[in-house]
Amino acid sequence: MKRVFIVVQFIVVAVLVLSWSSAVFAQGGKEVLSGDISASQSGLTGAGGGGNNSTAAKPGRADGLGNPLLGGECRPLYRLHPSDVLEVTFTVAPEFNQTLTVQPDGYVTLRDAGAVLAQGLTIPQFAEAVRKAYAGYLHDPEAAVALKDFERPYFVVGGEVGKPGKYELRSDTTVAEAVQIAGGLTSQAKHSQVVLFRRVNDDLVETRLLNLKKMLKQSSLKEDAHLRPGDLVFVPQNAISKISRFLAKPAVSMYMNSSQF
């Protein structure tokens, strides 16, 4: 009888242990599963993420300025220069409409509002500067600014060419192309030592010698230089034996004849 009672007790204890283990396992499984889901959601960004703090990265702008390689801004806005002509029109005060020219010092003189710096500003920035300047004269002034005229990129060709002078740089142009635009070489041209002058700053000019004769003879323009705005191409009459890579700006005049222009 005792043996039967002991066996029954053992069976009851075993059943209780199995029931408790199953409950713990089920609860633990839920915790693990919940942890996995949370971990999965925390790895998402954007609309698929579970938390309110997760935000999707904005493509194309790695910082405040944008990265062209990532699809950001690849063409910067035009910035004003001296001699640019601007037209300013006011929505509710047409009597203040005016046409302005950026002065050599970079300022414009607004009617009744005085001088305002324009050089280096974009059109939207300049429009905002105009609105601030007239804030004391007009209630909530609204001004529209249009660029009417500006100094176009140019290059200069001098020396032994058919038509020396200043030309607009409208597209990608090389030294050899610039010589042809300027009327081609004269019979006195020393086209084996064509000089390209490029301004580095207000006091320094970089020079480069180009052998157009060799390039044209070999039908290879790999060494032909591409012009930049403000470049000067000079075709000499006689050979230039030596020329420094950098020259003081006034020294450039010794190669040029002002009567050509």
Could you characterize the architecture of this molecule?
- The chain has 261 residues and is of the alpha+beta class.
- Among the domains are: 85-149, 2-Layer Sandwich (wza like fold), CATH 3.30.1950; 154-260, Outer membrane lipoprotein wza fold like, CATH 3.10.560.10.
- Helix content is 25%, strand content 21%.
- It has helices spanning 2-42, 123-133, 175-181, 212-217, and strands at 85-90, 98-101, 107-110, 114-117, 143-149, 154-159, 165-168, 194-199, 204-210, 232-235, 246-248.
- The strands form 3 sheets. A 6-stranded mixed sheet has the order 7-6-10-8-9-11, with helices on one face. Strands 2-1-5 form a 3-stranded antiparallel sheet, covered by helices on one side.
- Strand 6 and strand 7 (165-168) form a beta hairpin.
- The longest helix has 41 residues, at 2-42.
- The radius of gyration is 38 Å and the shape is elongated.
Total strand segments: 11
Number of helices: 4
Strand order of the main beta sheet, please?
Answer: 7-6-10-8-9-11
Query: Percent of residues in beta strands?
Result: 15-25%
Per-chain topology:
Elements: H1 2-42, E1 85-90, E2 98-101, E3 107-110, E4 114-117, H2 123-133, E5 143-149, E6 154-159, E7 165-168, H3 175-181, E8 194-199, E9 204-210, H4 212-217, E10 232-235, E11 246-248
Parallel strand pairs: 6-10
Antiparallel strand pairs: 1-2, 1-5, 3-4, 6-7, 8-9, 8-10, 9-11
